[in-house]
Write a structure and sequence with these properties.
With 219 residues, the protein is mainly α. 56% of the residues lie in helices and 0% in strands.
Length: 219
């Protein structure tokens, strides 16, 4: 009778491969579930931001797809906590308060953020008139430290990407920061960083100029 020799090394390697395969399947399954959850949650957002995440001007809703997952999650947290969008004069922000409540957990926020980013970003047509990008470039020098020379932002500094965003939205946010409609809540630490920067813009013309320059970035 032939003796049966067990190769411990073989079975050990095989066990490791099986374990790794099972882990890979679990990760893929978890990712698919998160993607499906994100898509499901985003359906509530399409009425304002559109199915492509490019925003709808008539709804005062910005494009979302150029923003990072981290930034989207942080803003959803702010809306849900009433840190952002609770000001009586923030019409568009007030509409976001109940929408943010549909995100029950942070995992929900992460899932919808991941789905939004997966839609892919593309340029949006400018609508504002009268802005001078040459003058705006000089003004944008104060924005470089956070938003970068390419306008793509920096998650470590909590600075969002500015590219592929509606120019009217940029102008509206600058006005909100300057007037205190946005960034004046004591709990809005990152928003408060923008308030003094907006104060450097003396009037709407300066705002239009810097927005016109931002529109030249990321092309």
């Amino acid at each position: 009778m032939k003796s049966i020799r067990f190769d411990a090394g073989f079975y050990s390697s095989k066990s490791i491969l099986v374990a790794l395969s099972l882990l890979a399947v679990a990760v893929v399954s978890s990712t698919l579930k998160a993607d499906k959850r994100g898509e499901q949650l985003y359906r509530n957002c399409t009425i304002c931001h559109g199915p492509d995440g490019q925003g709808i001007p008539l709804q005062l809703a910005p494009a979302l797809t150029a923003l990072s997952e981290k930034y989207i999650v942080e803003q959803l947290k702010k809306y849900k906590a009433g840190i952002r969008g609770a000001h009586a004069e923030d019409t568009a922000g007030l509409r976001m308060l109940p929408m943010a409540q549909t995100m029950i957990t942070e995992d929900d926020m992460q899932a919808v953020a991941s789905y939004i980013v997966s839609l892919g970003s593309s340029p949006v047509e400018p609508t504002l008139e009268g802005g001078d990008p040459v003058k705006g470039q000089a003004t944008y020098a104060t924005c470089l430290a956070c938003h970068g020379p390419d306008g793509r932002g920096n998650d470590l500094l909590n600075a969002p990407s500015l590219v592929n965003q509606h120019d009217w939205y940029h102008l509206a946010q600058l006005k909100k920061f300057k007037s205190g409609v946005r960034g004046s809540n004591p709990q809005d630490i990152t928003g408060a960083q923008m308030r003094p920067m907006s104060m450097l813009l003396a009037d709407e013309q300066m705002m239009k100029d810097v927005v016109a320059y931002i529109k030249t970035l990321g092309n």
